[in-house]
Amino acid sequence: MNYIFYIMGKSASGKDSIYRKIVSELDVNTIVIYTTRPKRDHEIDGSEYHFVNESFYDKMHDGNMIIEERIYSTIYGNWTYFTAKDNIDIGSKNYIGIGTLESYLRISEYFGSNVVIPIYIEVDDGIRLMRAVMREQNESSPKYAELCRRFIADSEDFSENKLISANIIRRFSNNNSFDECYCEIKRYITSMIDND
Question: Strand (E) positions, the chain?
Fold first, then answer.
């Protein structure tokens, strides 16, 4: 059986860094989701996201190519994120994706909960806030108001009740050591792949 390992966590939990490292070290295909939000300075189109416009989204939607979608009302307008059917062939290989709890639930519904394996990264809120501010400071046009909106929204989006309801039991702590957290996640993924 092949799996989709799905990384989740609140903003600034380190999920993008862990995702990139897993992709570089393990033989897994990537699920690159689409977004209409602006690209950050360090981001590469087609790596973590495909950066698209509303017209592209409309074509995918009209063509019934969208598995799941989310629209966030930000201080800069609506930003849409969506996962499309165009780059997932679960019969051929293991995949890794990254997203929200909401997107995890919809992808699990589409592919099956026995196929989609949650990887939830936890970080203390104080540590996350400091990391988020430091990351935003490095942008050419920091968006601190959006950082605050996301930070607050994460409390609701990843509430303990929602995590329990989604059966997210296994947690990976990234409070102190990125390397330890990464190694634990890598071992977990490798053990699941090797046991099949």
Answer: 4-9, 29-30, 33-35, 49-51, 66-74, 77-84, 95-99, 116-122, 171-173
Q: What angle do CA 126, 147, 79 make, to 5 degrees?
A: 140
Q: How far apart are CA 170 and CA 161, in angstroms?
A: 15
List, for residues 31-57, the tens digit of each pLDDT value.
Answer: 999 999 999 888 889 887 899 999 999
pTM: 0.85
How far from each other are the two terminal CA atoms of the chain, in whole angstroms? 6
CA distance 102 to 167: 13
Separation in Å, CA 88 to CA 7, 29, 69: 16, 9, 16
Can you say how many angstroms the Cα of residue 24 is from the centroid of all Cα atoms in its chain?
Answer: 17
